[in-house]
What we know:
Order of helices and strands: EEEEH
Organism: Saguinus oedipus (Cotton-top tamarin)
Shape: rod-shaped
Number of helices: 1
Radius of gyration: 30 Å
Transmembrane segments: 28-52
Subcellular location: Membrane
Pfam families: Ac45-VOA1_TM
Membrane topology: Single-pass membrane protein
Strand content: 5-15%
Strand order of the largest sheet: 1-4
Amino acid sequence: MTTIQGFAIKGGQFTKARDCASSSSPAILIGLATSLILLLVLAYALNMLIYLRYLDQHYDLIASPAHFPQLKA
Length: 73
């Protein structure tokens, strides 16, 4: 919950409202750390998917009959 300082009077005019809560509360820091961990997991998963696609293409090429020439008996 955020507490906002409503106003102050300076020179007969209202000043800007100020936020009294800290900008680096434990909840914000834990949220940022969790977001970073989830982002790293997502990046790793996408990397694995791309690598699997590469392996699939690589082994399709190796297993093709054109890769193994016919032996003459």
